[in-house]
Amino acid sequence: MVLKMGIRLFKNLFTGPATRLKMREPFEKQRGHIDIDIEKCIFCGRCSRECPSGCIKVDRKAATWELNPFECIICGVCVDVCPTKALSMLKEFRDPSDKKSLKGYKGTPPTRPTKGSNSDDAEKSVKSPEKKASDSKKNEVA
Ligand code: SF4
Ligand code: SF4
Question: Could you tell me which residues are beta bridge partners of residue 33?
Fold first, then answer.
């Protein structure tokens, strides 16, 4: 018994703590919250249709995407089904809030290719990936 304790004591001198004091660093596969790069969104509504808790609303005409974070169960289904990879799961938990506010974003509605238009131009009109990352934050409306 004493010998066992001595061995454990000796080991503890050379190893790190078995526990973490605080959640300083997120775990590798931690699910924190959903984020959207609104410039990548084509407002297809697939995330909204597949979301098991029904907390995403997409308005294609108005080019808006809205999430109720208080109903989101962080399952990640929306991230998996998004065809343009506009959605991502961030490891960090969202900030605490005393108001049940929605997260709303406004983007640019995709335009349909017109008859006789060049297919390259049509693709560009649906997406403009170059300017997406920097503009994502400024499109947040709530
Ligand atoms: S986030 Fe993705 S799945 Fe949802 S509407 Fe936009 S493009 Fe479609
Ligand atoms: S993580 Fe799950 S519950 Fe949350 S918005 Fe996406 S599909 Fe809905």
Answer: 90
What CATH number corresponds to the domain at position 63? 3.30.70.20
Q: Give distance in angstroms: CA of 58 to centre of ligand 1.
A: 8
What is the number of structural domains in the chain? Answer: 1
Q: Does residue 127's CB lie within 6 angstroms of at least one atom of ligand 1?
A: no
pLDDT for residue 18 is more than 80: no
Number of the ligand closest to the Cα of 132: 1
The answer as to whether 34 is a domain residue is yes
Alpha helices in the chain (DSSP H): 2-14, 46-50, 77-81, 119-126, 132-135
| Number of neighbours of residue 88 by Cβ within 10 angstroms | 15
| Domain-located, residue 89 | yes
Nearest to 105 by CA among 53, 55, 62: 62
Whether the predicted model's global pTM rises above the 0.85 cut: no
